[in-house]
Amino acid sequence: MRNRLAVLLVCALPLTLVPAPALAGGAPPAVALGSVIPAPVEVRADGTSFRVTPRTVVVAPASARPVADRLVEAVREATGYRLAVVRHAPRHASAITLAPDRSGGEDYQLSVGRKGVTIRSGGNSGLFNGVQTLRQLLPLEAPWIVAGGTIVDRPRFAYRGVHLDLARHYHTPDEVKQYIDEISQFKVNHLHLHLSDDQGWRIQIDSWPRLTSVGGAAGTGVDGVGGGFLTKAQYRDLVRYAAARFVTIVPEIDMPGHVNAAQVAYPELTCDGVAPPPRTDTAVGYSSLCIGKEVTYQFVEDVIRELAALTPGPLIHIGGDEAHATSQADYVAFQQRVLPLVGKYGKKAYGWNEITQAPASHTAIAQYWNTGRTDPTLAAAVAAGTKVIMSPANRAYLDMKYDPSTRLGLSWAGYIEVRTAYDWDPGTHVAGVPESAVLGVEAPLWSETLRSIEDIEFMAFPRLTAIAEVGWSPSRDWESFRTRLGAYGPRWTARGVGFYPSPQIDWAG
Ligand code: ACM
């Protein structure tokens, strides 16, 4: 709906607004080849250009048809043209060709010449990445001329993620899909869903049905606003929707802390067997599973088993943060039993960096969310084999306010303007955590203050693009980034995405 409106608006612009040279045959491209976010590895402009017309065809083998469909969708959104998909280009056709080759899965090469565009990659994920680049090279207004030359591109880190908290305020499947649509345009390839916390439980678990009938009921969540949960069918549908955009869903059940909602539903999960009152405030660190009770491990195993069965992706996130109501000895004992359970169901365990207190974390992935540049416990775990995903809260937390005047968000980790989100290096950020131990970056978005998709978009954009570039591009260049970001702004406006107009950026349009 928003997209159709944008197309109408663009078409409604009087022709006199189009610069005269752009109407000529050899019109200059409106978007420079090097203007892409995240910045590609190598860009070689050659002064030619390609014009997309209604007769342009998409050429793709059957194996690349899912990517071709996304390309057709994107071109229709941008231009209004419904391009045909064919297996072989007719002679002299104007064509956008998806060409599988032998390069790595996410790597791609995009060549734009007078007669067409070719995207080559060894994998559909790479072809999809090339399509996202092409989308940014299409101008916002006709004529649809793409700058000529070659882009050779590959990610610095395999894992580029965002996180979304459905527990503090529930966000509907349609809102999550809108977020996936946006993040995938910046080559973000993981979506971590925070599905349980003190205030609510947001995923159907058949063996413990009160988790959602009570923990996901109307009125659960911060301020008692909202409520809701994902049925298994809705979750599977989200997994499919994300996969079609080369985004892997990573589900999180937070434990042994952040479990008040589960204990309200099942009092046997407390040590005294008494149900605590439901919570709708934003305090943390007061709840804990009962580490000495066997029912705790039956519960945890049932949840992990059902979640693993629903999740084709390789990771299950088991939380582990802020377990202030669990003694350290109990915490380690809990993790020593629970971390291996994830492996039992065929998945790799992922948890907040506190899990590195447990030796069993040496085969797991730790998500670094602290604000310091040193963490001896993490460094020791890394030396023993733990891999790390970087989410330092003072750089990557999208729920931190931009500045003191930001209406939404929190500020316990500081204010994060765009440059703060951009100017850091995951490969050197924490002492004793070398780049070889870093799988990538993730930008968490906690929902204590966020209710709607508009709230999500305002906090995520534009900062998420900074984190996306930190995760994808081989190096950072603030001046280049701020120029490219300023030029990108009108694209969000055209799609109806209400981004934060950071004063650090000279916004076009
Ligand atoms: C966290 O922000 N508690 C991981």
From TrEMBL:
The answer to whether the entry has keyword Nucleus is: no
Q: Which Pfam families does the record cross-reference, listed alphabetically?
A: Glyco_hydro_20, Glyco_hydro_20b
Location of the Glycoside hydrolase family 20 catalytic domain = 157-474
Give the catalytic activity.
Answer: Hydrolysis of terminal non-reducing N-acetyl-D-hexosamine residues in N-acetyl-beta-D-hexosaminides
Q: Which domain of life is it from?
A: Bacteria
Domain Beta-hexosaminidase bacterial type N-terminal span(s) in chain numbering: 35-153
Record CDD domains = GH20_SpHex_like
Q: Which UniProt keywords apply?
A: Glycosidase, Hydrolase, Signal
Point out the signal peptide segment. 1-24
Q: What class of enzyme is it?
A: hydrolase
Q: What is its EC number?
A: 3.2.1.52
What family does the entry list?
Belongs to the glycosyl hydrolase 20 family.
Q: Any idea what this protein is called?
A: beta-N-acetylhexosaminidase
Which species is this UniProt entry from? Paractinoplanes aksuensis
Q: What phylogenetic lineage does the species belong to?
A: Bacteria, Bacillati, Actinomycetota, Actinomycetes, Micromonosporales
